[in-house]
Amino acid sequence: MIGLLKSMATTMKHALDGETFTVEYPDVAPEVSPRFRGVHKFSQERCIWCRQCEKVCPNDTIQIVQDDKRNGEQYNLHIGQCIYCRLCEEVCPVDAILLTQNFEFTADTKDEFVYNMEQLKNVPWYKDIDPLNSREPDRGGWIDEGAGEVDYQ
């Protein structure tokens, strides 16, 4: 009984001090780390269809269908089973796939979590933060910082 009263006293003390620990989402946008990994964004114009992202994916989230000339016909991503490990982004030689900071996506069924090229192309950036700029600390490890500007185009 004493333990119950102590815990209720602690709860009331924190309830009445006026500090909030929660974010009133969606009215107030939460602070997201610059290195947060969210929904993928895909650029078909940059993609060279090397299939490295598909090969490195640990749980077969990415499926690429190619025609006989190795042109990409279909790029599918199952967001529902993605573990956001960022291996697909790291292995891509042309930065055709990037993980955005967008975490706002829902679906009613599991099948609605399968995104195709067009859906991934239209994923908005969260707060207009470009992931290429947020990846700058990672790239500094293997790009000589004294070499001048790095062109991501």
TrEMBL record:
Q: InterPro entries recorded for this chain?
A: 4Fe4S_Fe-S-bd, 4Fe4S_Fe_S_CS, NADH_quinone_OxRdtase_chainI
Record carries keyword Ubl conjugation: no
Name all 4Fe-4S ferredoxin-type domain ranges. Answer: 38-67, 73-102
List this protein's GO terms for biological process.
aerobic respiration
Task: Name the Enzyme Commission number(s) assigned to this protein.
Answer: 1.6.5.-
Q: Which UniProt keywords apply?
A: 4Fe-4S, Iron, Iron-sulfur, Metal-binding, Oxidoreductase, Repeat
Q: Which GO terms describe its molecular function?
A: 4 iron, 4 sulfur cluster binding; metal ion binding; NADH dehydrogenase activity
Top-level EC class: oxidoreductase
Record has Repeat as a keyword: yes
One Pfam family named in its UniProt record: Fer4_7
Cellular-component GO terms for this entry: membrane
Protein name as it appears in the record: NADH dehydrogenase-like complex subunit I
Organism name = Haloquadratum walsbyi (strain DSM 16790 / HBSQ001)
Which gene is the coding source of this polypeptide chain?
nuoI
